[in-house]
Every structure is written in structure tokens, then in C-alpha cells.
Amino acid sequence: MVDIFNKLSAIGQEHLLRFYDELDEFQKRKLTEQIDSIDLSVLDAGECELTRGHFEPMGAMTTEQINARRQELTETGLEAIRQGRVGAVLLAGGQGSRLGSDKPKGMFNIGVNRQLFIFECLMNELRRVTATAGTPLPLFIMTSSYNDRETREFFEQQGYFGYDKEYVHFFVQEQLPTVDTNGRLMLSAKDTVACAPNGNGGWYTSLRRSEVFRQARNSAGIEWLNVFAVDNVLQKIADPCFIGAVIDSKSACGAKVVSKISPDEKVGVLCLEDGRPSVAEYYELTPEMQTERMQDGTLSYKYGVILNYLFNINELRRTAGVSLPLHRAFKKVSFINESGELIRPEEPNAYKFETLVLDLIKLQSSCLAFEVEREKEFAPVKNKTGIDSVESARELLIKNGIEL
Length: 404
Ligand code: UTP
Known about the structure:
Layout (H helix, E strand, L loop, with lengths): L1 H9 L14 H13 L17 E3 L5 H6 L1 H13 L3 E6 L26 H16 L5 E5 L4 H10 L10 E5 L2 E3 L1 E2 L6 E3 L2 E2 L1 E3 L5 H7 L1 H10 L3 E6 L10 H10 L3 E7 L9 E5 L2 E5 L6 H5 L11 E10 H6 L8 E5 L3 E2 L5 E2 L6 E5 L12 E5 L2 H4 L12 H10 L5
Parallel strand pairs: 2-3, 2-10, 3-4, 11-19
Antiparallel strand pairs: 1-12, 5-9, 6-18, 7-8, 10-14, 11-14, 12-13, 15-18, 16-17
Helix pairs in contact: 4-9
Bound molecules: uridine 5'-triphosphate.
């Protein structure tokens, strides 16, 4: 106890022991063990701007170019799936704080007159592709300690949405502590430091550590992983044409992109950074870069990423030791106050520390930007209303002929 108190007071975080004397022996051990295991280096991270290189626009394989070769590329992708060379990774560890539901986001019912869960939209699409290929492919689902049990139970309860359960594997991502606006660590209970999932960039590290991946990889010989977000209800998973195009282009990875709808749209943009493919966050583009246009009048930095990537496992392994930058995200984090009452904030109140999958692109030796039609493939559910919301996603689902 003295040791831990000294350790914490040296960094101005001794308030974590505020309720220590009220705890029983088990709780005391739990708290001190958690404090011991926490990566306190995050306290020094995130304050400073990330250093970026020189950005330049990057082209993409356009929808016209793709359509001209669709059949041939699709066949290449389907063949790779049939050969067991493709796996899919569903990133479902986020807390969906903007949507404001306590449940895993995938359990959200996007239906209106019938029940249609977000997970169901995704699994329907996966079933469609694997039915065409004539074989299932492994699906690895990343959860976090906050939603792991509920997610697994939901899949079980829903009969894996008709997918072969032998091919569905769950793994849990790691977490990092959160800090309030004064840089102080927080308690989520008297015996627990408030933590949050460490962002979607940690997926490969967590997946590699998991036994399920080792087994699946050895038995199936997976070479490519299609990584995608849970919250795009028009997400095309293991899209054979995309897979075929990346394989055909001999790129180390691929990123699905859409043309931005406006210069200031808040999406990460695929561009070149010091001559290498990389993703610039929307706030990293200067106003000049945002509005710069090419001769044909279209935006120079026009390709926004939609969190659907194809990575080659050998390339990922090569860069596995490189640590990704930590981003601070201002979010709603529940905590207990000085009187020990649990506060569930209505507005963002604290910083989470996250690594992002988009930062992996820069580490790959090459990347094919693959343009898709946003109306057909991009319906993110981030907010309750307005932009990228339940409402806008419903409209897009209906436009795509999906009954709600
Ligand atoms: P978001 O960046 O939208 O984060 O995630 P979020 O936590 O789901 O939602 P907000 O910001 O709190 O409202 C994009 C994708 O990355 C996954 C999410 O589940 C989603 O598929 N993600 C995010 C993780 O898997 N782990 C994380 O730690 C964060």
C-alpha cells in the first residue's frame, strides 16, 4: 500500500486511493493490482501534436476502372476465398458513446417495422458473399471487456445469424486508463480505475495474441484480412472484387474509399505522406488542402476512407513491433465523484487514449485505394440524429432496397 501510494503521489494521482480504507481485502488487492498493471505512459502521451510528413494527393482505382474489370477481379477474389486465403475482422470493441446505447452497437435495431440488428446487416452480407464463393470464411470479432459477454451471448442467441458458428471467433482488445480534463486518472468504482478500450488500431496485436487466430491461421493458411467497422450498415464484407483488385495490383494492402461530399467533410483522407500511402485525419488538412482542386474541378484530396481495409498478414507481421501513435479522444466516461456517487455524463468529460487502424496504412509498403459508390456502401451509424445517424443510415438502407 505504501509503495503504491508513493508511486501515485509522485505523479499526482494518489486520489485513486481515496476510498482505499473502505475496501475489503479482496477489493484492495484488486485495485492495487489494477494500478500496477496500468500503462501509465499514456499520461505523457497525446498532449503533443503528432509529427506528420509532407502530404500530397493520391489517386485511386476509380469506380469506372473497377467496373470495366469487375468480373475478372471478382473471380480472382472468389478464388482466394475458396482457397481459404481470406479472413474477416469485425471491429466491435467500441463503446458507441455518441449513439448513447448501453449495449454493443451491433445489437442496435435499425429496423422500423421489423427487427433488423446492425450485426444482422453485416452477417447477411457475409453470408451472401460466402454463398457465392461456396465456402464460409473465418470471421474474427474484436470485442472489449465492456461488451464481450453480451456480444457473444447475442450471437449465440441469434444462431450466428445463419452463419456457420465454427467460423466465428471472438477476441478481446486491450484497454487503457482515461483521464479527466485536468489530466487526472479516474475511478469508475471505489475499487476500479476507469479504463476504456484502446482504440481500433490495436486489433492486430490483440488478434495475434489470441489462441483462436493461431489455430485458424495454421489450419486455413489465411493470407489476407478484411478489417471493417461494425457501424456501417451497408458494409461490403470480404468483397471479392476488392480482394481481387488488391491481389491483382500486388499491393500490400487496400483501402476502400469514397469521394468526399464536401471539402470539409469529417473523414480521414487517403493521401501520400512523404511519398507513401497514408491517411490524414480531416483536421490535419489545411484549409488550402481541403479546397484545392484538380484540373477537372474535383477535389485534390478527395478520397475519404470508410474503415474497410484489406491487409496482407505477412506485411502486418513485418511491422508488428512498430507502435502506433496514441490519439486522445474526448468522450463521455462514467466515473465516481469525491462522494463516491456514480456519474454518467451527458456530454464528453474525459479523454480516452486510442490507436487507430488508419495509422497502419503508413506502415504498409503499398496500398491500393479502391473507390466505391458511397450511396451503396457507406451508411455509418455514429449519432442518434443528423449526419451519420440512425436516420441517415435508414434512408440509405431503404434506397438500397432493404426493407425496414
Ligand atoms: P468509433 O471511432 O466510431 O468509436 O469506432 P466508437 O467507440 O464505436 O463510438 P463513439 O466514438 O464512442 O461514438 C469505429 C469502429 O472502431 C471500433 C468500433 O466498434 C467501430 O467499429 N472500435 C473503436 C473498436 O473496435 N475498439 C475501440 O476501442 C474503438
